[in-house]
Amino acid sequence: MKLSSKSFDNGGVMPGRCAFAVKAPKGHVRLSDNLNPELSWTGAPPATRSFVLLCIDPDVPTRPDDVNKEDREVPLKLARTTFTHWAMVDIPATVDAIEEGACSRGVTARGKREPGGPEGSRQGVNDYTAWFKGDSEMGGDYLGYDGPCPPWNDSVVHHYRFDLHALDLDRCPVEGLFTAADVQKAIQGHVLASASLTARYSLNPRIRLL
Predict the structure, then answer these.
(1) How far apart are CA 136 and CA 201, in angstroms?
(2) In the chain, N or C terminus with fewer CB closer than 10 Å?
(3) What is the Cα gyration radius of the chain?
(4) How far is CA 199 from CA 19, 74, 118, 153, in A?
C-alpha cells in the first residue's frame, strides 16, 4: 500500500497553509489556514473493510522550561514525546483520497465540534485538547485535524507522520472522545497493511527548511 500527498512530498516541508500557525515578523507566530493536507492511497488489500488515519509528531519537548521563551532555545538534547494532530477511524474501504481542506479549514477556538470527513468516518480528539486545557479562550475538545504549531524557539525540526492502516474491521472499536492511543490499541491484530508519509515543519526563524 502506498500513501502520497499533493500538498507536500514525503520528507518535504509542510506548507504553511496546512499548519496551525506560521512565522510572523512581530509576535513570532500568527494563526494560519489550518487546512488538512491532501492525501491519497493505492494498493490496499482486497480484504480491506475500513481505514484508520493518524498524524503524530514525535518531536515534542517533554519539559516546558524553555518553550516559547525569549532569548532561550529548546535544546536539541532534550528528551522528546509525541503529540497527536489527527485520529480518524471508519474511513470506508471505497475511499482512496481526502482532498486538501475537506476536513479542516481555519483554527476553531475551543475545537471543531463536527469536523468534515468521508461519510461514515469518525474523528477523535487531538492533543490540542490537553494543550489548551484551562485556557478561557481556547480550551475545549479539539476533534479532527489541527496542524503543526511547534515551539517557535525549538532547535529541533518537527516531523509529522501520517500513518494509514487498512483494517479487517468495518468499525474500529473505540467510542466517545477517543485518542490516537485508543485507536492504536484497538486495531492490534486487525491491520492488513500500512503506509506512511512524513512532512517537516519549524517556526524557529533561525531554521531554514529546504
Answers:
(1) 28
(2) C
(3) 17
(4) 11, 21, 23, 19
